[in-house]
Specification:
26% helix, globular, six-stranded mixed β-sheet, Rossmann fold, single chain, 429 residues, alpha/beta
């Protein structure tokens, strides 16, 4: 089920209710990126292939509040009831979250009196690291198949979508929280204004909320169109986030650029009443965004041409690699990878299989293109490999794994710039 205007209509902004948004780019229709398909018996078409649903991926811009957004939007229950992404599946991501936990404990002086809640806590990787540094940690996540993993790690988890309603219940039953974490979840929430209002309900008077969002400037406007998928309803600028905070009773306290997800913002929010003046970094990033034209529709006019060029380049280069290797392998069954495979029109004739560390994806088929997903042992030792780097944001980790299995490989890396890497010489690149 979809919410919002029908495809083709000029929709209303979900951030400020302004009518008549400007189109940015359409990637056509494709299935949700985590809707992996269960294969049937050998030689039989996948059992879900006949009923697999695809939905439009159309991106729009609001000139009033500068928010970049999808329309139409899928119901969250269609995307998150059963989930295949695990925070712990990548060593690179685990190391990042462990370092973040150390930084949060230090910067917010967490101690036995501190109470921490994470929205979209997944398998509890981050909160498990904070469990010994705070008096209480609580996770909120709607994925019923993932929450037990967090519980097993000692992280109490509320299985639900975060909202103002739930925030009021938590505030009533457990009291206010000193630190609320929302990493890559605000942009995934269709009614993100309700989410921000819920954060306001939960925060202690001097509490803080740490938000991470993919930043539109180094990602979308640089041609990283694989950041567009149904779960990722918004691509934020700090301008757009600042616009949304006021009505929610929140204020910007600090902001910084980080490398995660191809380029993100880490933003600290506080309750508007009594919040300190924002740090100089907030004004610096806002000025940079205005200078780059993030508040003007014409700035986004280049996204469609960048998308078309990427599709043509990736399709041609993958097919050229086919004759130069024993096997063509997709590297990483990520959300990005599903978008790239489907948008570039790649299927089993082009890519033999995809390798991924996530057990919930292994043995299934990539949504849409139906390329099978296996663990790394599917690449036989010594095989001459041509690879398509689908999880390019984990490039270094993936190249090292591939180099451990083959003495010869050519890997096409589509983003942030289309290039070819040759192993073993470039394994550490």
């Amino acid at each position: 089920m979809m919410t919002g205007p029908s495809a083709g209509a000029a929709p209303t902004c979900r951030g400020c209710d302004a009518p008549g948004l400007s189109p940015v780019v359409s990637l056509g229709s494709m299935p949700p990126v985590n809707a992996f398909v269960q294969p049937s018996a050998p030689g039989v078409q996948p059992s879900a292939a006949g009923v697999e649903r695809s939905y439009p991926l159309d991106l729009w811009f609001c000139a009033r509040c500068t928010l970049v957004q999808l329309s139409p939007v899928l119901e969250p229950s269609l995307l998150y009831g059963s989930y295949t992404y695990l925070s712990s599946a990548s060593r690179t991501n685990v190391a990042r979250l462990e370092a973040l936990a150390d930084g949060l404990a230090r910067d917010f002086a967490l101690d036995a009196r501190s109470r921490v809640l994470e929205i979209g806590s997944n398998d509890g990787t981050l909160l498990a690291r904070l469990r010994g540094r705070a008096g209480a940690v609580v996770g909120v996540d709607p994925a019923r198949n993932v929450a037990p993993l967090a519980e097993a790690a000692g992280v109490p988890t509320v299985v639900d979508f975060f909202s103002q309603r739930l925030a009021r219940e938590l505030a009533r039953d457990e009291g206010p929280f000193d630190l609320v974490l929302a990493l890559n979840v605000v942009a995934h929430t269709p009614d993100f204004r309700d989410l921000l209002g819920g954060v306001r309900e939960l925060l202690a008077p001097r509490g803080r909320c740490v938000v991470e969002v993919v930043h539109v400037l180094p990602t979308l406007l640089a041609g990283e169109i694989d950041t567009i998928y149904h779960e990722h309803v918004y691509c934020f600028s700090l301008l757009a986030l600042a616009h949304a905070c006021g009505p929610a009773g929140l204020a910007l306290v600090d902001a910084e650029r980080i490398a995660a997800q191809g380029g993100s913002l880490r933003v600290v929010l506080g309750r508007a009443e009594g919040a300190p003046p924002p740090s100089p970094r907030v004004a610096e990033i806002l000025a940079e965004e205005r200078a780059a034209g993030l508040d003007r529709a014409e700035t986004y006019g280049r996204v469609a041409s960048l998308a078309h060029a990427l599709r043509a380049g990736v399709s041609a280069r993958v097919r050229a690699l086919r004759g130069a290797a024993d096997v063509v392998v997709g590297l990483g069954a990520s959300a990005r990878g599903v978008v790239l495979m489907n948008y570039c029109g790649l299927g089993r004739a082009d890519v033999d299989f995809v390798v991924d560390d996530t057990p919930l994806k292994q043995g299934k088929l990539m949504p849409g293109c139906h390329v099978p997903v296996h663990d790394w042992t599917k690449i036989a030792k010594g095989t001459k490999v041509a690879g398509l780097m689908l999880s390019w944001n984990y490039r270094r980790e993936i190249l090292a794994k591939l180099a451990a299995r083959t003495s010869e490989a050519r890997v096409l890396v589509p983003l942030p710039a289309l290039e070819e890497v040759v192993l073993p010489a470039d394994a550490g690149a």
